[in-house]
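Thread: "does anyone have the structure for this chain?"

Original post by V.I.:
We have the sequence but no experimental structure in hand. Need at least a predicted one for the grant figures.
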Amino acid sequence: MKRGLLLTTLLAAGLLLSLLSWWPFESRPDRDGRAHLDHLRSSGLLAGARAQTRLGEVRRIVPVATRWSAPGEPFWWAELNGPDGSAGYLAWRESGDRALLDFSLEGLVAIDLPQAQALGGVPAIQQFPLQGADGQAVASGCVPTAGASLIAYWSNRGTFDWQADDSHEGLVRRVRDRLPMSVIADVEGYADGKMALAGCFPGSLAVGLQEDADQYRIPVRVTVAPFRSETLAEELAAGRPALVSCVVLVPRKPELAWGHEVVAVGQAEIAGVRFVGVVDNYFAPRIPGTIRWIQAERCSSLVLVRPRR
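Reply from O.Q.:
Generated one for you, tokens below.
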């Protein structure tokens, strides 16, 4: 009797071990990542061509202190995969509520859903190198590049003939020439090759855009306002993207964060967290124009361009 019971116990244990070796182990970060994908799916953001989006490599990121950010708490970063290759990324907190921090879904360029809205058509102009006063390469800068994207948006729609036949690069240079740009040494290694960075305050951008509009007789009024979700919602409802100042993760080097100026084109609420959808001038997704989504609490000010009444 005892021998039979022992044999039965050993067989059961062997079967259990066999099942455990076959059953795929899923870590907590993987579970969290899949849960965030489920939230995006239930919000309607993973419909159509993005329905097959799956979690790819998941890695733990330890933030590095920079001039614009404290060390911060570690978080998780996951690449997303789809039938055509890269499908975007997710970033979420490691501890506490494990809330989603930042994400992008390839090909998501315009939205009209109950939980998410975004305007399409903002040219995704990317920063590019210029020759600085010392002959060394310096970035065109996020501030004038974002401003140029907004001007090009209005010009492409035919609302205002604001671009004055300039190319995108020429438009960035035109806006940049109106701003008191500062050259910032890239001691953290944001750019490949440590190309110098370039910065400017949003108030100066508003003044520069107003001067440009006045020169080309564009009937708009450019102002600066503190960031409020309600203000941005009013602008988007009227078909007007805005320029937003924020602190964001660097997509290719998420251990770094920096102060940034981008074009705000949308808002969404995912699992109770408010996000701002932006066209980022230092983010080159596989599909140009793909929106990047950042937590609204990371935004600080808006530059508004409104038609004069």
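V.I.: this helps a lot. The chain is about 25% helix and 35% strand.
O.Q.: and The two ends are 95 Å apart (CA to CA).
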